[in-house]
Specification:
Helix content: 40-55%
CATH superfamily of the largest domain: HAD superfamily/HAD-like
Shape: globular
Distance between the termini: 14 Å
Number of strands: 8
CATH architecture of the largest domain: 3-Layer(aba) Sandwich
Mean pLDDT: 95
Radius of gyration: 17 Å
Number of domains: 2
Structural class: alpha/beta
Length: about 230
């Protein structure tokens, strides 16, 4: 019977890196514009959702947006792969220790729940030597709506470990109100960490099951996740 821990990536496991500049450069090449990217928050959104928000503000028709997505993400991933060796992500405090401790348990499954497309998730986490910790995941390339991702992740975990895996035995760990919301919609528990762009007070207002400043105290985080 598995407890499933579903981690967000940006602001939860890692920070920094060249993702935003790579995304914007690819947008300019494919669509001729990146929209008002300086004033659009990327936090907690899926990559396809971000594309649509940036381009709809410019009046780009939906069929043009949809038609360019494959080329956009191909270019974005190419830039990311080229640039990450010079500008790697920074692994946030306590992350490697926590993943190591969780990985030693045979009753826990480690997964991802992220707005990144799967290729972006792999490249970012590999840059921080984290990719190999995860058995499965759900990604922005699976669905534009983050609220749909918990069900996808739980279904993939069930394919690995069987019908004993349920959303009630899952915990979504993230740094934004959207992370908390998707877990609540998906019927999981939620852990919010103030390691991204949202404060403890802002996250507390979303009513997560657990709220932490960061993941640096491995024993304390384990006690909460394994309740």
């Amino acid at each position: 019977m598995h407890r499933i821990i579903l981690f967000d990536i940006d602001g939860t496991l890692v920070s920094g890196g060249p993702a935003k500049s790579s995304f914007v450069d690819a947008m300019h090449e494919v669509y001729g514009t990146a929209g008002d990217f300086e004033n659009v928050s990327f936090a907690g959104k899926t990559d396809p959702q971000i594309v649509r928000e940036l381009l709809k503000s410019t009046g780009t028709p939906e069929n043009e947006i949809e038609g360019g997505l494959e080329e956009l993400f191909n270019r974005y991933l190419g830039y990311l792969e080229t640039r990450l060796p010079r500008n790697p992500v920074r692994v946030l405090p306590g992350v490697k220790e926590l993943l190591s401790a969780l990985s030693r348990r045979d009753d826990v499954g480690l997964g991802l729940l992220t707005g990144n497309v799967v290729g972006g998730a792999r490249l970012k986490l590999a840059s921080g030597d984290l990719w190999e910790w995860f058995d499965f995941g759900s990604y922005g390339s699976d669905h534009m709506n983050r609220d749909e991702l918990p069900a996808i992740a739980v279904a993939r975990a069930r394919d690995i470990w069987g019908e004993t895996v349920t959303s009630e035995k899952a915990v979504v760990v993230g740094d934004t109100p959207r992370d908390v919301q998707c877990g609540q919609v998906g019927g999981t528990k939620t852990m919010a960490v103030a390691t991204g762009s949202f404060s403890l007070e802002e996250l507390r207002a979303c009513r997560p099951d657990y709220l932490l400043e960061d993941l640096s105290s491995t024993s304390a985080v384990l006690d909460l996740l394994l309740q």
